[in-house]
Predict the structure.
Amino acid sequence: MIEMKHPHALPHLRRLALAAQGLRQAQPYGCGLAGARKAINHLGYVQIDTISVVERAHHHVFHARVPKFKPAMTNQMLLNGDIFEYWTHAAAFLPIADFRFSLPYKHAIKNGQIHWYKTRDKKLMGELLARIRTDGPIRSRDLETNAKKRAGWWDCKPAKKALEQMYIEGDLMVSNRENFQKTYDLTERVLPSHINSQMPNMETFAAHIIDQQLRCHGFASLKGLTYQRRNAALRKTVKALVNERLAQHTLEQLQLSSGEVFILETGALERPLPPLNNRMLILSPFDNSVIQRDRLKALFQYDYKLECYLPEAKRQYGYFSLPLLYRDQFIGRMNCKAHRKTGHLEIKLLHLEQHSFDEDLVITAFVDAITAFCHFQQCDAVSLTKAQPKHLTQRLRNALKIEEVL
C-alpha cells in the first residue's frame, strides 16, 4: 500500500480528483449540447434537485464543466434519448447507455422492496397503465384535469403515487420535463431500440460501478464505490472484485496520513495532469465533486454542510451556500438568491476561509466567476450584502463595480 506522507502528495491527489471531474480544464468535454452529452457520459449521473433559489442543480453541474451550456439542453438530451431519468443515491439523469444498470433496482422494487410507498394500489396502477397505452403520455397535472371532468374518477394523490410507483418499478419512464413537470410514458416507447436492456449479473454490475467511479473520481474509497447503495450483495461483490484486481496489480491502494484508504488504477499517480490556473468555480451543493462529504473533508479539509434543511437559527452560512473552488482548494462558500423577475443576483454572504493565496488574485477570480454565474442565472445586476472576513466586503464591492461585471 502506498502511504501519502510527502507534503506534495495531497495536492497531487486533489488535482487528480478535480481533473477526473472535469473541473480543472477549460472545456474537457467540448461546448454546448455535444459537450453536455460527453460530460454526463463521463460523470455517470447528474443529480436532479427541486431547489430553485439559483438555477437548479442538474443545470448547474453542466454549467461548471461545459462552456455555452444552456438549461434547455438538459431536456433536449432527454427528448433526444441521450439520457434517462432514474434513481441513483437520489433522483438523477443518467447516460442512456447505462440503462441496463438501472434494472436490478427496478426488479427489486417490483418484487417488494420499498422505495417510497409501503402499499401500492395495483388496480389503479393497471388502469393508469392501460390509459397510457391507449391515450399516450401523461402528466400528473393531467390527472387533476380529469378529476374535474370525470367527477373524481381519478383522485390525483393516489394516481400520482401510482405513476411514481410504476416509474420506479420500470414500467414507465420520464419522456419529457416541462417547467419541472414530468411526463410519463411506457418504457418500450421511450427507450431507444438499440439500447441494451438485458439484466446484468452481479459481477458485471460491480465491474461497471468500479470502472465508472474510478473514471469520474480518479480514485475512491471502498465505501465511496457503492455510495448510498443499500444492496449488500452488490457491496460484497464490489469488494471481492476490488481485492481480485488488487491481487492482479491492476488496482493499487494508497493511504492518507489521516488514515483514509483510497483505491485507484495502478500508475494513475504518474499520469500527467492539466496545469493549475487561477480560475474560480462556483459549484452546486449537489455537484458530483462534493456530494460525498466524507471524501470532500478527507481530501480537501473542507467541511461542507447544506443548511437548507436546518432551522434558520442554526444556519452558519445560509440557506443554500455554494462551494467555491479556487485552483486546487475549496476556499469558501457563497449564499445567494437569483431574483429572476428583476434580473438581480443577491449575494447575501460570501465567506472565504483561511488560505495562503494572494487576495487580489482571489478577488479577480471571483469577479470573473460571478460574471459567468450571473449570465447563467439570467441576471444583469449583482449586489453583495456581506463578506467574511469583513475587510473584504468593500474591496469586493469596489471590484465588482470597477470591473463593471454586467
User: Anything to note?
Assistant: The mean pLDDT is 91. DSSP finds 15 helices and 15 strands in the chain.
